[in-house]
Amino acid sequence: MSTRISAQAKAVLAVLADRRCHLTAEEVLESMDSIGTATVYRALDHLTELGLIRRLALGKKSAVYEYIRDSHMHFVCNRCGKVYDIQADFSGMAREAAKVCGYHVNWTEVTSHGICRACESEINQADEASAPEK
Ligand SMILES: [Zn+2]
Ligand SMILES: [Zn+2]
Questions:
Q1: Phi and psi, residue 56, nearest 5°
Q2: Residue 90 belongs to what domain range?
Q3: Helices 7-19 & 37-49, crossing angle to 10 degrees?
Q4: Which of the listed residues 41, 69, 97 is the one where a domain comes to its end?
Q5: Same domain, 34 and 92
Q6: Of 7, 38, 74, 131, whose CA is between 20 and 30 Å from 62?
Q7: Whole-angstrom distance, CA of residue 53 vs CA of residue 64
Q8: How many Å apart are CA 55 and CA 49, to the nearest integer?
Q9: Ligand 1: distance of its center to the CA of 33 in Å?
Q10: Ligand nearest to the CA of 81
Q11: How far is CA 90 from the centre of its chain?
Q12: In this structure, what CATH number is given to the domain that contains residue 63?
């Protein structure tokens, strides 16, 4: 496998590093000009292979990509599909995984699923609005 990164892949990596969030291939494509769909997909695959970005299947959205940076976990809202980053330390988990499997751990991914605060308050408001007058 070649470790040479094309100019297009560098540009894709820069988008993910700058935006600091989770983007689908379509969203990466939208934020770049003069680059073809196939090229973006190829660049995303290549960067994933190199371990510079990671591909995550979170919630309802199609696969998202993110730049691998500080260790964080994800919370996915089952209602709106929003993905939240939460700072977390996985060094204990990574050590445990390495101990059990006896091999090197590159990164650890943890995702919690539930209802976010914004959705919770929307649900409460809807309940109040539909509640009978006292
Ligand atoms: Zn939500
Ligand atoms: Zn994330």
A1: -125, 140
A2: 70-134
A3: 80
A4: 69
A5: no
A6: 7
A7: 10
A8: 10
A9: 31
A10: 1
A11: 17
A12: 1.10.10.10
Q: What is the pLDDT of residue 105?
A: 82
**Interval between CA 85 and ligand 2 midpoint (Å):** 5
Q: How far apart are CA 22 and CA 28, in angstroms?
A: 10
d(CA 29, CA 44) in angstroms, rounded, equals 11
Which of 47, 69, 91 terminates a domain? The answer is 69
Q: Average pLDDT by consecutive 10-residue portion of the chain (134 residues)?
A: 79 90 91 90 94 84 83 89 88 89 82 94 88 67
**Does the CA dihedral 72-5-14-21 come out positive or negative?**
negative
**Tokens linked to 96:** 């445990």
* Predicted local distance difference test score (pLDDT) of residue 61: 66
126 alpha carbon to ligand 2 midpoint, in Å? 30
**What pLDDT shows up at residue 3?**
65
Cα 20 to middle of ligand 1, angstroms: 20
Q: What pLDDT sits at residue 112?
A: 92
- The CATH number for 134's domain is 3.30.1490.190
42 in the same domain as 83 = no
Task: State both tokens at 93.
Answer: 């988990």
| DSSP 8-state symbol, 84 | E
Are 47 and 75 within one domain? no
